[in-house]
Give the backbone structure.
Amino acid sequence: MIPASTFQPVDTATQSTLIWPDGSLSLQRRGAMIRDLTLRTEDGSIVRPLHTAPWVGTPEADGLTGLMQGLSGEWPCVPFGVAHDGLPAEWTVPHGWEDPFAHGYGAHHDWDISVTPDSIEAQIDYPADHPIQSLRRRLTPRKNGITIELWVQPRRDCRLPIGLHPVFSLPSKPQSTEVIVRGATQVWSHPQVSSDDPTPARENARSASLEAIQSFHSSPLDFSRLPRLEQSETRLLALGCDGRVTLRDCGSGIQRHLDFDPEQFPFVMLWVSNQGRAAAPWSRRHLALGIEPVRAAFDLGTEASAQPNPLSATGQDTAFDLRADQPFYTRYAISVSSGAAGPVDSR
């Protein structure tokens, strides 16, 4: 544990910051998103593991609303996803209740943030008619990383998908980052292809690994090395991950790790944002990798996740059964290492 006396809290109107000898962490009020995270590896290398969208903090962001205005770093999604139309028959379900905000009310609104002697905490109340009453999260620095805790307080019994949404930065050099989803047994591609998200991956397909994703042609695609050469947007779902995903810089060997509880989150959704979205504010300049532990049917929304679907047919549930008198709690971590050896799991 880092002594509380080593922390320097800084507050502004839009975000709060902790600075300690081996790093710094800022949390913005919009979505309780991590705006800036700087960490130091065992050998002293400085790493900024998470991504900030290129329009954040510029005049261009002033015309945006919700999560798009400050799209940064990492945040919780309660519930995860948004309803989709035009899905294949096996994914289509009757329309029912959906949160009107993609990835949940909390992702689009301002949280109350407080800085304690050794952590940053954030809390938000949901609207009175929402099945969730409130969310709370706490971010605590640790050696070479941070630990993140999330509490979800249901207002009433409900069945909802939940996801974590870290977005990691990618360098501009093609195929310079290795993606390691430890223990993954299968990778599914998104059931829907959209002209807004052009992808070389065949929709609604099953592949043995990231190295052999089914394409629209005869040759498989390798998504284990990023960025890709073409401008594209691809959503994949890995099954069987044991609770750690690592990004390794193929040049320096520096590794960025995400650790989470695979019993709670049996799938990892990978959002490969490879400068494929043409519409503003994306403007074919957004380059990042979302590594999203989820209990959800992709990002297809509450009803698709809460009802039987092809993913739940594998034996893994795609939604949480939440009870009004039982807060949901999870703990996960983001850390860095020099590459010689990864840090001890911090779940």
